[in-house]
């Protein structure tokens, strides 16, 4: 029998799994907790019959209010939820396309944090190997889209930087191979994959490898928590406006066959 959901047989070495759809059949919790601005009430939401977060229920609950993300729930079984309890730092949640619900920061101070004892060290292999598969919509801004970053010591991405390039820095910056021109990806939903092996750095988009080269500058030694819509650290002017719909991470460089299967499933499911 084939898995009912894409991660049913892919939980080995997982760090966390966030999505606006259900991706693991044994998961029974909600997908997201939202806050409406009319009265600051919060509520959890699960998924509808189409496996996507219940947009109709959200819209009925919020009325004309804007809504913001309080918790993006981890479906991995590890309980590593992405959380923001400070009201004015919560990213805004959107249902303008009910088939691709998402959230987006304002670029000023919005972000979510994944709290683990040793931060980025826990969700990678000691600040080195790791894999991220994400459904995102790139924007053009000097921004840190996710991870950690203090000076040159980082495990993070810019999706995109203000020059239109997408950068992936899984270790001390700046490695010779670290970016590709992603101007054509701005304001477009796409599947992005980032892999750090013991020797190489790899980035993919639209199911195509954009670069793959040797990483020579050393591992990330930071211990801050992984952030979404920012990279936890000292980049206080670099919060992101990248849009997020799905973010799955492993603490190793998973096999190409595995990340390609997740990519293909996400691309088909979300129709992008």
- C-alpha end-to-end distance: 27 Å
Number of domains in the coordinates? 1
Count of helical regions: 3
* Percent in helix: under 10%
Mean pLDDT across the residues is 97
Could you give the order of the helices and strands?
EEEHEEEEEHEEEEEEEEEEEH
Which fold name corresponds to the CATH topology?
A: Jelly Rolls
Percent in strands: 25-35%
- Uncertain residue segments: none
State the shape: globular
Largest sheet: 19 strands, mixed
Derived structural class: mainly beta
Q: Tell me the number of strands.
A: 19
CATH classification, class level: Mainly Beta
Using the 3D structure, state the CATH architecture: Sandwich
Radius of gyration: 17 Å
Q: Helix and strand layout, with pairings?
A:
Blueprint: E1 14-19, E2 32-36, E3 42-45, H1 55-62, E4 67-72, E5 82-83, E6 92-94, E7 102-104, E8 112-114, H2 120-123, E9 130-137, E10 146-150, E11 153-158, E12 165-170, E13 179-181, E14 189-196, E15 200-205, E16 208-214, E17 226-228, E18 232-233, E19 243-250, H3 256-270
Parallel strand pairs: 10-18
Antiparallel strand pairs: 1-19, 2-3, 2-4, 4-5, 4-6, 5-8, 6-7, 7-19, 8-17, 9-14, 9-19, 10-11, 10-17, 11-12, 12-13, 14-15, 15-16
